[in-house]
Amino acid sequence: MGSNGQYTRVSGLLVGLLCCGVLAGCGVSVPSDPDGALERVSGRTMRVGVTDNGEWVRLEQDQNPTGSEPDLVRGFAESLGTEPRWISGSEQELVKSLKDGDVDLVIGGITDDTPWSTDAGMTRPYTESTDEQGKTEKHVMLVPLGENAFLLELDTFLLEQEPTS
């Protein structure tokens, strides 16, 4: 790469830094939550949609959910100074609730090849498992589409945890 390419990269970096400075000066935070998901759940109640799915989430009548994902969500909620309120349903019902703003997070052994990826934001895969056919599955959690500050906070928390499988 010649000096012209280096000049372009340095110019691009300077423009990017200038834009970040202008946005920060205007009180704009990046990433942001258009509907305020992170602010809404911090120190309050986090509404968590749960669907029964083996070791990931186990639901029993009149009991709080158990399994590896409810344990992770309890830790995430604690890190935000909030409590989870569990709402059970099918994946389809919970994704609709997510889109309608009635839940903040959906768990249930959901994998990164979920058909709901166009309807919800997904965390980065936080752990892997192997299905009955020997195929590797990458597990994610679903958040409201576009709530990027909330998604980043959850992704950061999940990255800091020990793998569960």
Q: Determine the fraction of residues in helical runs and give it as a percent range.
A: 25-40%
Secondary-structure-derived class: alpha/beta
Task: Give me the oligomer status.
Answer: single chain
What string, H for helix and E for strand, traces the elements in order? Answer: HHEHEHEEEEEH
Strand order in space, largest sheet? 2-1-3
The outline comes out as globular
Strand content: 15-25%
Number of strands: 7
Poorly predicted regions: none
- Rg from alpha-carbon coordinates: 19 Å
Q: Count the helices. How many?
A: 5
Notes on the structure:
The protein is 38% helix and 16% strand. With 165 residues, it is an alpha/beta fold. The strands form three sheets. The chain has a three-stranded parallel β-sheet, sandwiched between helices. A two-stranded antiparallel sheet has the order 4-7. Strand 5 (127-130) and strand 6 form a beta hairpin. The model has no long low-confidence stretch (mean pLDDT 87).
